Inverse folding.
């Protein structure tokens, strides 16, 4: 038997537990799933500012949570949808991916088409905002051969089969990667536009709050947008933001090929071929875990450097869990990790921001070191929203 557990912020019903509450600090089973969804069929759980989606093996998408802009996609603007509902308007399409922004949503079909819904206050749906201020039902965009979709706070990015990247929405920190004819960054892009100056063929894209990342076929990571917390892997004292894609130095990852990447609002996590995991960006909630022995800082202002180090770490550090990491999910400022080698039972570790109990340890105290969370079964799938978390377990 398989069971879905949820915890963390639930002020909009985003945990799908059937009720609204300020927080749920311990993993709690989601009992009342719709008749047309069974736990063993769940393949993905993703969350945004206050809403969540479950994607099944049959390609059906279910939503719950904050819905004032129609971002749940059930055809209404009910403030809180406290139980998972089938997304309307996608009948006949097999969905293979979904992502949530702060108040907008995007989904990808097996045929390479893209649907969007929710708030369009900053053009984040890829549609003119004066024509479509919001929509509570999915709208199909004029894009084809898409293989990866992601959503930031108020911007959106996709990658296509031929390795190109398109972005749209809010771009005030360079997260769209577009400049105008006068060389200035584009602060609002209401329709999908290709990102120029990308080196290599892109396999997938991931959005932070106001930063965009791309993983190439060669295993390189490209990044552009906000760098306030060092999330571009550059010293934020020197680079506040950057509009053109930067290649993060390969030696930061031990010279290894990056095989997957995840991002929170202001931090990034990647895995490399050896199985090692690297983290960088904002650190003050504990979302990067404990740091390695600090490298010599050439800055003469050591006091300022120490303050910076506690706030963020712009050089990727290897995350040491003493366990093989199978997968990671990032909330806005917290993380979940599945650990366990092949043939072993799996475990859940969480760390970072915990104001809403999103780390699942029964408290609301930030967790600065990855800590094991007990679950009554073998962990299969993890997922996270801004301040909430999910785990699918196969019961013992």
């Amino acid at each position: 038997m398989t069971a879905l557990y949820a915890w963390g912020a639930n002020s909009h019903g985003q945990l799908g537990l059937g009720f609204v509450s300020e927080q749920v600090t311990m993993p709690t089973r989601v009992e009342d799933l719709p008749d047309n969804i069974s736990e063993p069929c769940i393949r993905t759980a993703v969350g945004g500012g206050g809403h969540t989606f479950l994607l099944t093996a049959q390609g059906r998408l279910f939503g719950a949570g904050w819905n004032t802009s129609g971002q749940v996609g059930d055809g209404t603007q009910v403030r809180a949808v406290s139980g998972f509902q089938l997304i309307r308007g996608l009948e006949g399409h097999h969905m293979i991916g979904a992502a949530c922004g702060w108040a907008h949503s995007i989904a990808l079909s097996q045929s390479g088409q893209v649907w969007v819904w929710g708030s369009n206050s900053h053009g984040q749906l890829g549609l003119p905002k004066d024509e479509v201020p919001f929509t509570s039902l999915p709208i199909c965009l004029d894009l084809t051969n898409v293989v990866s979709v992601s959503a930031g706070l108020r911007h959106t990015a996709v990658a296509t089969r031929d390795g190109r990247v398109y972005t749209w929405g809010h771009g005030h920190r360079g997260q769209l990667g577009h400049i105008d004819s006068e060389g200035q960054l584009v602060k609002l892009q209401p329709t999908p536009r290709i990102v120029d100056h990308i080196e290599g063929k892109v396999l997938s894209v991931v959005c932070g709050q106001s930063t965009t990342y791309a993983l190439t076929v060669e295993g390189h990571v490209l990044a552009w947008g906000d760098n306030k917390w060092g999330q571009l892997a550059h010293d934020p004292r020197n680079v506040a933001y950057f509009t053109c894609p930067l290649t993060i130095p390969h030696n930061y990852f031990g010279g290894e090929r990056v095989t997957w990447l995840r991002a929170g609002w202001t931090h990034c996590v990647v895995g490399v071929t050896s199985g090692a995991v690297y983290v960088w960006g904002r650190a003050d909630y504990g979302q990067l875990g404990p740091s390695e022995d600090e490298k010599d800082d050439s800055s003469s202002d050591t006091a300022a450097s120490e303050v910076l180090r506690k706030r963020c770490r712009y050089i990727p550090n290897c995350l040491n869990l003493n366990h093989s990491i199978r997968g990671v999910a990032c909330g806005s400022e917290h993380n979940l990790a599945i650990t366990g080698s092949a043939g072993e039972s799996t475990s859940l570790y969480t760390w970072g921001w915990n104001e809403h109990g999103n780390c699942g340890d029964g408290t609301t105290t930030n967790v600065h070191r990855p800590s094991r969370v007990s679950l009554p079964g073998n962990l299969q799938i993890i997922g996270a929203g801004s301040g909430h978390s999910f785990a699918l377990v196969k019961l013992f």
